[in-house]
Amino acid sequence: MDSLLRRGPAAAVLLSVHIILYFCCGLTGAKTVPALYVFGDSLVDSGNNNYLPLSILRADFVHNGIDYTGRKPTGRFSNGKNAADFVAEHLKLLPAPPYLSRRNGTFATGANFASGGSGILNTTNNNAGVVQNIPLRRQLWYFSKVRAKLLQDLGSKSATLEHFSQSILLFVVGSNDVINFAGTNKSKSIRDLPADQYVALMGSTFKRMLKAAHTMGARKFVIAALPPVGCSPKQRSEIADGECNMKANSLCEKVNAEFSRILPELKSEIVDFHYIFFDTYRVLMNFIQNPENYGFTETRSACCGLGNLRSDIPCIPVSLFCSNRSNHVFWDIYHPTERAARFTIDALFSDSSEHVTPITVSQLIEL
Q: Which of 214, 274, 328, 335 is the catalytic position?
């Protein structure tokens, strides 16, 4: 497709027609999705942090990627594929490439803007004066540049609007904001905020971001709830009996309740704001509380790391890693294994309303 764009105006017109007639309407009558644009944190980062030279929040080293194609690290915080990869698979798209890998690309079938360590708030993991991640606001700024580039290459405003109105925007973000607030190393801007005010700040900020994406032409959104981060190996290791950190989980539930409040608000304010809210919290909790139903036998310890629950030292080249990744829920101190990520996204696309509201993915695509 990129080569087609380089052939000049006639090819661009042809591509415009192709996008409208095939991607948006489908040659078989059923709608398909032209592109997937991914926003968020390390749960869906496909390698953007590799291009932040001073960031320590990276995964471009072994043993990450041990089960990925070529058995090499890609920047994904996983033994293999992550959730964004499986969303793309279900949509019959190639994995969305990290935006920073080719900033001037057209990204006609999608781009991944997600960044490990990032949050809804600009200050999350970025309060030391060194750029450690790409905050959500900057991710959306990069999205605006992709939109401008595609408009330039297509040469048609209507084709560009049609493309983005039929594309899906995936948001997986907020966990790091919670970890930052629940921890002892809070940034100055939030140090004295009560929890309810912090949750409200996250909600109002996120709502503005979603509105900004809509203003740029996006119409279809998949928003993931925060997972139970208090049940991650790192959070468990800080509790004496190794149980889930209920303070962190309670904060996640409050944020999810706030998301559940602002999303219908947005829908009432903007008629063509179409969304799915995916209950990632309950899906992951099912893995942890009923592991036998999914073939998991280890729900507490990380596969890769060192120390208590393999979480005292994260997954780095000197760490130990388990031989059977498929029976672990967690790959490292915070992130799921490839298998857990696959099962999570299978639940999103199950066409059941058990974990999604107010509509299913297939219904979202058909709008």
A: 335
